[in-house]
Amino acid sequence: MKNLLVLHTGGTIAMKEDRLTGGVSPDVANPLMDANLEIPANINLVVEDIFNLPSPHMTPVEMLQLKERIQDAKLSGYDGVVITHGTDTLEETAFFLDTTIGNLLPIVLTGAMRSSNELGSDGLYNFVTAIRVAACDEAKEKGVLVVMNDEIHSARYVTKTHTTNVATFRTPTLGPVGLVTKSRIIFMQEVLPTTHIDVDTVTGMIPIVKAYAGMHGELFEALAQSNIDGLVIEALGAGNLPPDTIPPLKKLLAQKVPIVLVSRCFNGIAEAVYDYEGGGAQLQKMGIIFANSINSQKARLKLLIAKNRQLTTAELKAFIEQ
Fold first, then answer.
1. Would 96 be classed as within a structural domain?
2. Is residue 12 annotated as a catalytic residue, yes or no?
């Protein structure tokens, strides 16, 4: 018998559509609580409504609460955890858990793009497939997984790519790590090992700034006058910035503010390739850290975790670059 803990946090999967207005909002009761689930007989579920929040209301504080609840579940002998979550920030919660306690036990997140009473609702199906994945032996030591639309994705790389399509979750460049069929759970890729750094606080101000053609340095100048704990920049191409941004970025670095750079491109990785004013080679020599395999929202969480563990400059750099 596999004992799984189910943690409902809210989101579209727990919402209903108003037939008159078409608006989608949280229901008084989570529709999944009374759902008739077709799951294998060897799976026992213990279900908790830990939150009932729309996805944009999730913060690192709630992510920390989920982490601590999962750690308690491990001590209580559970074999896995399934988390239902709103899709807007699902990838961030998944990544936070993956980075802090990823291999503690199988942890699977899922959600829905259509509320429970909409035509073609995908919530119940995604929920059942997530349960099946969390219960399978092959899910062990795979890190945190995201299961949607018959695909299994690694929390490290998955991202939401479409505002409404049920196939919204994709892993750029690499693709899913596995598939869910009617009768089987199939893992087709190895999940790369990652460093896990646990935290018990999530304080810090770390903004994200996206670069664009003709960008000047005023925004970075303003940030240099504020009390930020770090900065993530979505740079152009392989990792380049307009030249006017360089002076204020040097000022931030002189203030010991860690700056992490990712590409604003959907596919590929950021690298210090171009050696001109504002090019990646110059940025790296200045001390900007390249996070070459994750997007900006995940890089921000990594920087937040590093800040709350008070990593040294060298430790932070190694952690971000992994």
1. yes
2. yes
